[in-house]
Amino acid sequence: MHWSGYIAVGASVFLGAWLAFDGSHALLSGDYVTPKTGRFAGQLGPWSRLVEGVGLDPRSTLFMGVHIVLGLALVAASIFFAASPRAPAWWTLLVMAALTLWYLPFGTLLSLVTIAVLLLPPARSGLA
User: By Cβ atoms counted within 10 A, which residue in 93, 109, 122, 127 is the most buried?
Assistant: First the structure.
């Protein structure tokens, strides 16, 4: 696998693991990981306003489950791509990265890195 594939896999595994961890933490403890002190104490990131904007409660059990499922799916897609960076795995990881763009700002940045790297010619070489 070309270096670009390692970057895509690394960024995706990191983001997917965090989403799954944070969703699990929220489900078990009742809330996501948030700052304990300071100006943003107890507040969720900008992603929560996006979620509220479409009428969902970011602190609901449903959305905690979304974090877990999406995180695990992203890790699985990353493993699929690492094992065989061919068309089906490439498309799967690209779609999963696109589905995590909403997770502002942290997830958006990692998803954009993943998408950009996947679109580079070396990462696309297995698509023919």
Answer: 93
